[in-house]
Amino acid sequence: MISFAIMVVVPILVSAWYLWARAQDQYASYVGFSVRTEEVGSAIELLGGITELSGSSSSDTDILYKFLQSQELVATVDAALDLRGIWSKADPEVDPIFAYDPPGTIEDLQDHWLRKVSIYYDSGSGLLDLRVLAFDPADARAIAEMIFAESSARINALSALAREDAIAYARDELTQAETRLRDARLALNEFRNRTQIVDPTIDTQGQMGLVNTLQAQLADALIEVDLLRETTRTGDPRITQGELRIAVIERRIEEERRKVGLGGGVSGDRSVFADLVGEFERLSVDLEFAQQSYVAALATFDAARNEARRQSRYLAAHVRPTLAERAEYPQRIYLLGLIGLFSFLAWTITALIAYSLRDRR
Known about the structure:
This protein is of the alpha+beta class. 68% of the residues lie in helices and 10% in strands.
């Protein structure tokens, strides 16, 4: 009975005296919020009904959950509201358990923060619910409002960083595409200035058309000479004239074929057309590829920028900071019951051990 009185009755009586005589009333302010992501698609997506209008971001909520327990947030709220003054309104000498003993270090304040600010996180739904305690209901609501404001600012900062990351790569690709397109255009202009030819393929087509015309004239001249040889005597001046015409046409054909690279060599100081056409086609392919790359990069950049603008993460409060009208804490009966239960369990275990040791002797 003596041990029961010492280990059970005395702790209950002392706890009851402290809870009802020394412990100060505390008021609770509740706030609940979640990180939401608005994704508004294009008109086609909306008509098709394939766009998810709203969703939660669990990774952002995990970051926010850690932020709510961080020393950074404690220091920010303390600088704005003076947490040390708020939580020491109850005299620490009268209520040393529930009151804060100023000034203390930032680590002491953070430890007390974790006692006064309770965080409930549902990872499935992404909901965060907070309970903030203070000795004045207005102070509790002010802390809750400050927590919500700082959390919203942190989510906005994360959203801005995500938007910049989303378009940074697209911007780099666009810059590279612009440089490639500019270089390709400069190379083609340099070729045209050097050769004084806008499009060698057009000149080549003209040259080949001239060769085809000369070949047709050559065929007519050959037929005409053959007819003269069969119908006139040898040494007819028309035959000599025809043969001369055939020789002139053949030389012209050879000259024109040499220009387009079919006969090899160089005509005067002009490069062989085949080489010019090959160089021009290579530059044209480079320019076409650069243009297509630029168009694709520009479309990607615009899409990334529009997507970053459309996807907006924000903090949605499902419970606004509340203002208490009566003190709910400390929960005196609940705490007294816990103290009595654990005191009784401790006494029971101690008694069993004592009896066991006595019986063993």
